[in-house]
Write a structure and sequence with these properties.
The complex is a heterodimer of chains A (642) and B (268). Chain A is of the alpha+beta class and 642 residues long. Chain A folds into 4 domains: 212 residues, no CATH class; 156 residues, no CATH class; 177 residues, no CATH class; 58 residues, no CATH class. Helices cover 53% and strands 13% of the residues of chain A. Chain A is built from 21 helices and 15 strands. A 6-stranded mixed β-sheet of chain B has the order 6-7-8-3-9-10, with helices on both faces. A 4-stranded antiparallel β-sheet of chain B has the order 2-1-4-5, covered by helices on one side. Helix content of chain B is 38%, strand content 24%. Classes of the chains: A alpha+beta (642), B alpha/beta (268).
Chain lengths: 642, 268
Amino acid sequence: MIRLSDAFTLSVTKLKTRRVRLVVTTVVSGLFFVVLAFASSVFNGTIKSVEEFSADGFGSRYITRVDGISGPDDYSMYENKDLIAQAKVIDADLIARKKAAAKELGLTYEPTLEQASVVPTGPNGTEGLNDTPQIQELLRGAKIEQSKGFFASLDKAQKEYDVIARYQSISLGNTGMYGPVTNLPTMVVIKDNKEKTASDSNQYQYGLTGIASLPVGLTLMNDPVLDAFLLPEQSFVVGDNGSLPIIAPYTAAEEILGLGKLPSSASSKVRLDRLKEVRSQVSGKTVEVCLRNQASLERQQLAEQQQLELETNKNKKGYIRPELIYEKSAKPCQDVVVQRDVRSAYTKKETAKQEEFDRRFGKQDASQRIVTFKIVGVVSDPPNFGGFSVKSLISSLLTSNLGSGWFVPFSAKDSLPEYSSLYADADKITNFNNGVYFELASPEEAKRFAKEKTCNFDFFSGEDPSKLCIEKGTPFYLTSFGSNSVALNDAKTGFQNFYFKAALVIALISAIIMMGTVGKVIADSRRETAVFRAIGAKRIDIAQIYILYSLMLGVIVAVFSVGAGYFLASILNARSADGLTIDALIAYNSSNLDRTFSIVGFNSKELLGLVGIIILAGLVSAVGPLISNLKRNPIRDMRDER
Amino acid sequence: MVSKKLTTPEEVLLEKYAGNIDEIMSVLTALQKKQKTPKSKRNYGDNVVVTQNLSKIYKVGKQKIKALDEVSLEIKQGEYVAITGASGSGKSTLLQLIGALDKPTEGTIEVVAKDISKLSDRALSKFRNQTIGFVFQFFYLQPFLNLKTNLEVPGMFARTKRKERQKTAESLASSVSLSDRLTHLPNELSGGQMQRAAIARALMNKPNIILADEPTGNLDRKNAFAIMDLFDTVRDTFNTTVIVVTHDAELASRADREIKMQDGRVIS
């Protein structure tokens, strides 16, 4: 073999021949590789940026929400014969006590109007439980009993896997945790010194954003989970005035500051300025809610109805106004004000008796109080689905939120009004409004946990999922929580698998394209090969020159592909990086607002792999033409050229 | 303008070659060498080419064509031989067999005392590289390499050290009066210069024999004579055997000996 430097000298001369063909070959065969290099750059840049931002926020933690399996067993509790029997006893006891109390107070009591805790559920005399106030304690006990299995499985799983922390969330919103219980207070937001009407906010509404989402989204969550969303110089300490620390959604923070929602066409600079303004201004701001008990709420509703009735009938002749008329207070979170009371002494006495009767059987006096929340952190709203553009797909990765909600740290729970009495058993019951979370040590452990313990169940099979999955040892539904870190990790592996498979297929196509050029160059060089052979070149010397030529062609295609791929990524980056930076700053609550998001990234493994595959394609492309060339008779080639 | 009478040989050459100093130098060198050693008084060395009953048959389809028919000849070291004959007489085939580019169908051929018909492909390559220097009608210089690197190419295949190669290339370029063209690409040279460069390239590995196949076929008469004279100079300088194939009798007369061929046979 000749010296490598000499082979290089002679190979370079091949590249100088047929330059137009060389350029066309480079572009055509490199085109697919350009796409791969572009994809690699965008993917790795995005992942790298997400990871950098994650360091500020929540993204690099592997937290999994663990829900128990709910199946027919959960609902069979309402058809449980023992519970039904106990409920019947409770009902009978209640009626007996009410009869006695009515007799004592001289009131008329009609037991048939009493809400029954046991009701018929079918034509065959089957019975079921009804969620009446008197059996709430019974149901709570049954739910605690039923949840024991789930918590036992949870404890077992916690030991089996590398769980570094276990968290819990409790929904404090108007959805309630025990169903429609009468003693759970209702929250009403006070805005502009007015209560937002109860009807606006006392029902769970999907997709609520802004301040209106507070009554349905208020959740207790462990401090270590919320730490990532604290604003600078804020803490989870309850204020001297009793204000409760709260993490607010970004849209609510905007609303609190009286800032209108920015149009979707707003420039990145405007969005960044808004973000800076929101973060600096909202810190320490307060939101007030009025916490009304059921009696207070009923009196508000009564006053509302009466005022409506008066307004409707004000010009109607013969309309007789009620003897007792309430109106809402001008101040927020007050009890109703008596507008008119012309009741007779007898009526007042009878009403007092009835109130005493109700009080004896659990009805509370109207009470309401203002609770003040102090904004100590901001969390992003859930990303909106934005179609299939590269930018929107990247945006969808920027998830570091806790759901659409307002979060109060567990450390402040004792400052919540009546928390200990209302939510005493919250950590013993599993239901939709309570969440249990495992923070796992690594993505591998999170995946292993999900793979081994998640219940894969066909809901249309007609079988009992709780039994089936518990028997199979997969007693949970597991969902990643708070961030896409596990999914991102999966995406990394998945992308590389796809990337190298695609690269091999493309390499084959490119090798065929390059073979055309290499073949032509070699064919055109038959005379030259013959001359080289005449002046003493061995076959292996000729092979060495053309292999080196193919290698250089591969390098040129690789340089073009990688260069063009990264150039295109840079163009996309220039167009979208500002917007993505804003999305990421919001999503990860980054304290460093100078951090930028870049979708141009390098992965040495992928880059070297791609270059290697392209060069391999170049070499493969030379094999066929070279073998055919080396077999030729140089004399014939020289003679043919004449 | 007053015309001056030409008196010295230099003045005559200046007029003849229109001031092309390379051509003039080349002719002068040749003339000086010729004056030194007349053709009849030359002492040649041993035989470097010996063929006996050498035949070559080509198959073209089903037809067999006898390109060489029992050729027996001897050529000595330092001899300048012209092989002449009409087109298809077998002269190029004979040259290719001597140059180990092809193998005979029958007969034997010994070059520098080696039966080259029995050498392996690898050994033949080495033989061509070390023993033979080829000069072609169309020069076959590498179009994207400068003159110096072109001269080095046979040295590359011989794995000669770069410095040594470069020194030899510079020296050979000087011998063929192309010192000032070392950095030029072939397309920047004239036809005569390209062929001189090709001759210099053939001399790179100091071969025993130069084989030139119609080396003047692509040149004008003036350059053709200059090239033939240059072969003479090369022979004198390097004691190289020069075998030139040409169909031009006038050019062949510049050689020491003429081998005439007809229908694959040597006729004189």
